[in-house]
Amino acid sequence: MLTRARPAIAAGIFALAALAPLQAQQTLSVERIFASRDFRMQGLPALQWMRDGQRYSYVQEGTNGVTDLVAEDARTGTKTRLVDGSRLVAPGQQKPIEIEDYTWSPDERKLLVYTNSQPVWRANTKGTYYLYDLDSGRVTPVSTRPGWQMFAKLSPDGRRVGFVRDNDIYVTDVATGQETRLTNDGSDAIINGTFDWVYEEELGLQDGWRWSPDGARIAFWRLDASRERNFHWLNDTDSAYSRVISLRYPKAGSPNAIARIGVVEVAGGTPRFVDTGNDPEVYLARMEWAESPTEIMIQRLNRHQNKLEVMLADARTGASRTVFTDTDPAWVEVDDDFRWINGGRDFLFSSERDGFNHLYLVSRDGRNVRQLTRGRWDVTSITAVDERSGTLYFGAHAPGPEQTHLYRVKLNGTGQQQITREPGTHSARIATNSPFFLNTYSSAGTPPVIRLQNTADGAVVRTLVDNARVRQTVQSLGVHKPEFFSFRTADGTELRGSMIKPANFEAGKKYPVLMYVYGGPGSQTVLDAWGGTRYLWHQMLAQRGYVVVSVDNRGTGARGSAFKKATYLKLGAVETADQIEAARYLAGQPWVDATRIGIWGWSYGGFMTASAMFAPGSPFKAGIAVAPVVDWSLYDTIYTERFMRTPQENAAGYRNNAPVSNAANLRGRFLLIHGTGDDNVHFQNTTQLVNALQAAGKQFDFMMYPNRNHGISGGNTSQHLFTLMTNWVTENL
Questions:
Q1: Which residues of the chain have pLDDT under 50?
Q2: Most CB atoms within 10 A, among 155, 242, 400, 560?
Q3: Residue 292 falls in the annotated catalytic set
Q4: What domains can be seen in the chain, in order of their start residue?
Q5: What keywords does the record list, in alphabetical order (predicted)?
Q6: The whole model's pTM is what?
Q7: Catalytic residue among 678, 679, 682, 718, which?
Q8: 212, 442, 603, 611: which is the annotated catalytic residue?
């Protein structure tokens, strides 16, 4: 998935860092934004509700840099240290283990601790796991054999720990430490219990195995990636000779891995495989046990991604049947809102079948379907289900697409109510037996806070983290918060935007404008939420006399299926036209210098920037494209084909809107930036665009970052990158 533009929030989790004293300086600089600690957020790392619903636990930095695990009473705020981090010393080690993440055993007397994590692609999904016994204080490694462990999980009865190592699945007996290998064919091409690059990136799948409810067997994905071609790039900086880096990466129209679902007994034996049909091109997009130790739910998605089938499979025989199907003329979204309720007799499902993403109650056999939520807005996710009261809690982009609020509705579809009221973005966590929810809240220009609130009426019980020092620092800058606006295009489409004006804005003065764009399918940049370092950089430009504007074009999210899917089969055409109309709308404002309108974006936003700069008659004087896709045939199968089908089926759609095809149209100033180690949007994109621009005789500016990935970060890289962009904007806009 291309980098999505999101508010810099993860529900309840922020980097825990000490805050520097409030600086007297009231201006922003790149150094202050990226190298100081002025804007570092506090948080409650690895926050999770405990079983009783009255307490939550989280990681807290203790003395001498060790990490403790503490519990806090939700009602009173009383803290108890559950794990003294100084006691987390593994056999044969001197230094305590750092708690990066953890899982409770069912009785909450043992803790599965994750530490020493390492990246696989861009996420740290491999590391080392230990079991900690709260009664004895004993620390035991999950495995003593060489190699990293991935996705370790305690069995439902707490007697075993399963994990993945080197693409095979293992189980360790907690009492004896005996380790059993359950699959035996893992290799570079055969992947058991985890995923290849494209499944992880585009279907959001990393952990590829599940315990059965009785702990007797494991269901898992098996991918045969031998059909996927390797993409290669070079590391030129670490030695006298270049080192080749290879990654199995299926580009649009090329073969994918063949996926299967296997079941293996924990006692050992040959895995059995589920019948998911004879089409090797399908995606097995989701899999869970179906509220039964003998039946599995699978979401099967065709390669065009316009048909999603919910299947039930017998784990003992492998026989399967389709019970529910969701279709769309363009594409369907993989369903992350699937929940079993009523003891497995029904399930919850989200669909855009009425034009907006809403929730449905479906009987286990798929025959009865009842719509639970309604409105001209999209549900974002299911937050919790309280079956005792028959209440479903969910997040939604309502009352407007810029905001996200917590709602509830009865499981019979009545009594829909909004719970959170304060304008902005709310991300809630609800425990099943608790009258409270943990809410991470922010708004445009206001840093996030974490609050405890009542589920009954949303009233704030107390604030857990207020980030007051950061908020005061932001307030000391004396800046204007973003203003929201809308306008209509020539064909009558309403587009919504936000703008940041200089603090000393004068209506009679002419200002240069820099537009920030992402624009990809289902994304948003126009949000009533804290925007992190990108927002601060935009405020820095406003302090220097620029107006910074963002507009969500057709194709973006939170405005229903028709708005989002208007770009189907022609990525870049409609979105670019909307951004150009936005620029012309701005040019008509009396305070805008129409000769000084620029645009910048990253990833899909880089594609959009290049497309806008290369459009005939482009109104943009200057543009910065960071890590852009320049030809969709160079990007991966799952993402690209969802919106474009294959290059073989849609050659004109790929060719006509590719920046590399239109480079000769460049008229303004153009800065191209990319990391050579980008495993997502390959540096190959920029190489081909450079070649096309040179062939067309076009002058442009260019910066590469050796071995940096799609995020172009590490060390002082961010500071260097944003200093470059600041200077370039100043000189060219």
A1: 4-25
A2: 155
A3: no
A4: 472-732 (3.40.50.1820)
A5: Glycoprotein, Hydrolase, Protease, Signal
A6: 0.95
A7: 678
A8: 603
